Amino acid sequence: MTDLDQAATRRDITDALLTAMDRRHEVLDAIVDADDRDAAATAIAELLGKSKLGAEAILNMSFYQLTKAERRSNQAELDNLNEEVTFTLAERPASTGDSLDLRPFSADDDADLFAERTAEQGVAGDGSGAPAGAVSEEIAKAVDRVDAEDAVWLVAVEGTTKIGFVFGELTGGEVDVRIWIRPSARKHGYGTAALRKSRSEMALLFPGVPMVVRAPSA
């Protein structure tokens, strides 16, 4: 996870906790009225206008976190994070990842998206930095690496709209993770969201292998 991603995640959680403390009576009512944990998290997120990640953090709160000392500590942390992370959730609404999903790359269905990425970047899809070959050849090589469990290509989607790629290539005992977001979808936080979503996917596919994240093309 990048430093910016870590800071954005911590800020989302800290902001949600502080808001929940200020509106604790409404939050408690939402929890009591919910059928189960997932419904409670959804209700809290909608009530406070926060991410699902923040809502889960609220559900995990301990009672001591409601004390004045803890509230002051959280406020101080939020102030520091706001200096470190300057964009707001309104400016980059997709950064929470609530609306973004990842699915496996399809050689047939996603060739158009890969062609768009290759036309913009002009380099091979394997992360080597070499000049790009023909799109069909690049895809064929990628399918072979995925089948051999040396790589994973994921497509980031929002509903039925393709947003970009997450590439994971196993190289030298590390997983080289790269994010590409198509130009029309940039500056909304999709790169941060895709990186967040990809961590569990990479951990599942490459257990125990460290991840090296390259700067998102976003």
Structure summary:
The chain is an alpha+beta fold and 218 residues long. The protein has two domains: 3-87, Topoisomerase, domain 3, CATH 1.10.268; 96-213, Aminopeptidase. The protein has eight helices and five strands, in the order H-H-H-H-H-E-H-H-E-E-E-H-E.
CATH architecture of the largest domain: 3-Layer(aba) Sandwich
Question: How large is the count of helical segments?
Answer: 8
Q: Mind telling me the CATH superfamily name of the largest domain?
A: Gcn5-related N-acetyltransferase (GNAT)
Strand/helix succession = HHHHHEHHEEEHE
The backbone outline, from C-alpha atoms, is elongated
Structure description:
The protein is of the alpha+beta class and about 220 residues long. The protein folds into two domains: about 80 residues, Topoisomerase, domain 3; about 120 residues, Aminopeptidase (3-Layer(aba) Sandwich), CATH 3.40.630.30. Strands 1-2-3-4-5 form a five-stranded mixed β-sheet, with helices on both faces. Strand 3 and strand 4 form a beta hairpin. Helix 1 packs across helix 2 and helix 1 runs antiparallel to helix 5. The model has no long low-confidence stretch (mean pLDDT about 85).
